[in-house]
Amino acid sequence: MNITEIAIDDLSLSDDLRRSGSAKQFEDRLRASIEEIGLVEPLKVATLPMGDGYLVVDGALRLRAIRQIRQSDPTRFNSVPTYITDYAKRFEIRYQTDIYQDLLPSQLASLVEHLHKTESIKKTDIARYIGVSPTTLRNYTGLWRLLQRGGLFARIVDLMDVAVLPSSNPYAWLRLTDTGLRHVIEKKMATEEISAEIWLEHATIAARQGHGTRFTTGYVETVTGDLADELYREASETRDIKRDLGLRRSSSTTIALTDRPSAPRPDRSKALRRLGRVSKNTTDPVLRAAALAFEDYLR
């Protein structure tokens, strides 16, 4: 699927494709996130049968948040990036997307790495199959690396699973040393003199009970930035180069996705065979459900 910019006024919603419900707190955080950093995930839409606009298949909450932002500032979000899907498959795609959205960040990271390493599916293909941007899929790779480092880094992913921390910037944490991560938690995030382990446990429990602090992407960048050099894994010059390369990669990927002509439908038989092996052989219910959903979507 290619990304296409579509005017906000050309998008419509259907009650049949809405999720069953959502917490106001989540909608408020979603609106604040879009207002701060823009729309990270393109909407999935389908051309209406009469050709007079597009139906939002996935992204009703994001569209609602954007419309609320435009009430305060009509100059923002005149159009939004979208993936155009098949109208006849709108319910199938909605089902497949629900499975993707209902997985925790850590589960998605594990699924992506399993499909890539065990089934040899390219990450660019995985991104296309589940309808996310290459940048978002790269974040799942970052989450996987946090899990592999273990210790406090894996506990950071636990906080992402309960929405205390955003899962959109794992590389802010990966650049830190073990000492650097402990310093950030104990000196910049904890409000009292306690160990990083205790603070992480308290924050996780509070989130599961429905209260506690939730941190923004901007806050994470602030507390993990401008530290002493010895708290980072690499020298400042190397970090600057990597940051610049990351910005260029993100920019070039967006241009390539939006400007390139439509490509012919790819051969998906190999991916279907590999996903079939996962759904039949795995004992993990999360992997099986996701693999079956991807199979349905690719067919």
What does this structure look like?
It contains 14 helices and five strands. It has helices at about 25-35, 60-70, 90-100, 105-115, 125-130, 135-150, 150-160, 170-175, 180-190, 195-210, 215-225, 235-260, 270-280, 285-299, and strands at about 5, 10, 45, 55-60, 80-85. The radius of gyration is 20 Å and the shape is globular. The chain is about 60% helix and about 10% strand. The chain has about 300 residues and is an alpha/beta fold. Strands 1-5-3-4-2 form a five-stranded mixed sheet. The chain folds into two domains: about 5-100, Conserved hypothetical protein from pyrococcus furiosus pfu- 392566-001, ParB domain (Alpha-Beta Complex); about 105-260, no CATH class. β3 and β4 form a beta hairpin.
